[in-house]
């Protein structure tokens, strides 16, 4: 499914407001999260994933407001270096996650329409609070579907935090550099 | 913002984080009031709908499922399962199988 882009000014303002609300009300700073705005429509959020032994590993998720809030933010797990490139499975910046039944992490996912035209290819953080879920033609129930006015970027970040915590999080998929 | 009538001196206050929209609010309850009554006020006054399969309501302290304790009174529930009386609500979401 090709998503219609939102008006960039409205999307940026709405996304920023929603993110600020969630950040403040849920005490993200006190929980060790941080964020950096990279351009009008994108923010990279640092999430401290909690291991079962109590330690933490930081992951970096780039959120995009290209289709917000008609659709959820775009979500990309990235590498903490200039340009924030996409993280790949088998590298230190890709988390090992024993997924709950409502989420899966795909390093490379393809979706083609009935005519064989490729409509989606790339990393997919697969649950109904990411834009890529809809781009790749997944079909939620009405109760599961992103609903503007009911869901905000809070719904995306809270669930990312959940899968990066016990019992789901299993460490980085390769050792971190010293 | 509290969803309640006039506060009584010994009312207990439950803080609920709605993780779907980032809002936070308080619901007051009497110590002997059942957890179920608090949950009903959550649905009626904040969520404006009935409870659905897939809804999750967890104690922020320990992740414990609030729905498992509906018959307990609030004071006993606080003592044994959720000392801070802070809850996190999440509605259903679709996933890899959807």
Q: Count the helices of chain B. How many?
A: 2
Unreliable stretches of chain B: none
The assembly state of the depicted protein chains is: heterodimer
The count of strands of chain A amounts to 8
Q: What percent strand of chain A?
A: 25-35%
Radius of gyration of chain A: 16 Å
N- to C-terminal distance of chain A:
42 Å
Largest protein interface? A-B, 31 and 21 residues
Per DSSP, the total helix count of chain A is 3
Low-pLDDT windows of residues of chain A: none
CATH class call of chain A? Alpha Beta
Structural domain tally of chain A:
1
Major β-sheet strand ordering of chain A: 1-2-3-4
Name the helix and strand elements of chain B from N-terminus to C-terminus, one letter apiece: EEHEHE
Written description of the protein model:
The complex is a heterodimer of chains A (about 180) and B (about 100). Chain A has about 180 residues and is α+β, with helices and mostly antiparallel strands. Helices cover about 20% and strands about 30% of the residues of chain A. Chain A has a single domain (about 10-165), classed as Ubiquitin Conjugating Enzyme (Roll). Chain A has helices spanning about 10-25, 130-135, 155-165; strands at about 35-40, 40-50, 55-65, 75-80, 95, 105-110, 120-125, 170. In chain A, a hairpin with a 2-residue loop joins strand 1 and strand 2 (about 40-50). The model of chain A has no long low-confidence stretch (mean pLDDT about 95). Helices cover about 20% and strands about 25% of the residues of chain B. Chain B has helices at about 35-45, 75-80, and strands spanning about 10-20, 25-30, 55-60, 85-90. The radius of gyration of chain B is 13 Å and the shape is globular. The model of chain B has no long low-confidence stretch (mean pLDDT about 90).
Summarize the structure.
With 178 residues, chain A is α+β, with helices and mostly antiparallel strands. In chain A, 19% of the residues lie in helices and 30% in strands.
């Amino acid at each position: 499914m090709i998503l219609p882009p939102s008006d960039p000014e409205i999307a940026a303002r709405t996304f920023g407001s929603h993110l600020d609300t969630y950040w403040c009300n849920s005490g993200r700073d006190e929980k060790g999260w941080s964020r950096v705005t990279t351009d009008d429509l994108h923010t990279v959020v640092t999430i401290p994933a909690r291991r079962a032994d109590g330690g933490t590993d930081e992951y970096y998720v780039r959120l995009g407001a290209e289709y917000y809030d008609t659709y959820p933010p775009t979500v990309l797990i990235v590498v903490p270096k200039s340009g924030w490139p996409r993280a790949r499975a088998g590298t230190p910046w890709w988390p090992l996650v024993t997924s709950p039944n409502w989420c899966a992490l795909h390093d490379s996912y393809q979706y083609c329409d009935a005519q064989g035209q490729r409509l989606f290819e790339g990393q997919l953080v697969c649950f109904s609070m990411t834009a890529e879920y809809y781009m790749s033609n997944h079909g939620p129930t009405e109760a599961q579907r992103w609903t503007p006015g009911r869901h905000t970027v809070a719904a995306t970040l809270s669930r990312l935090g959940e899968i990066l915590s016990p019992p789901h999080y299993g460490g980085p998929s390769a050792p971190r550099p010293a | 913002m509290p969803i309640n009538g006039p506060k009584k001196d010994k009312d207990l206050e439950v803080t609920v984080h709605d993780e779907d929209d980032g809002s936070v609010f308080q619901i007051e309850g009497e110590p002997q009031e059942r957890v179920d009554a608090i949950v009903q006020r959550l649905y009626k006054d904040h969520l404006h709908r009935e409870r659905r399969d897939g809804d999750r309501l967890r104690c922020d302290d320990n992740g414990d499922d609030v729905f498992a304790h509906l018959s307990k009174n609030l004071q006993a529930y606080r003592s044994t399962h959720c000392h801070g009386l802070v809850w996190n609500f999440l509605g259903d979401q679709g996933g890899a199988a959807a």
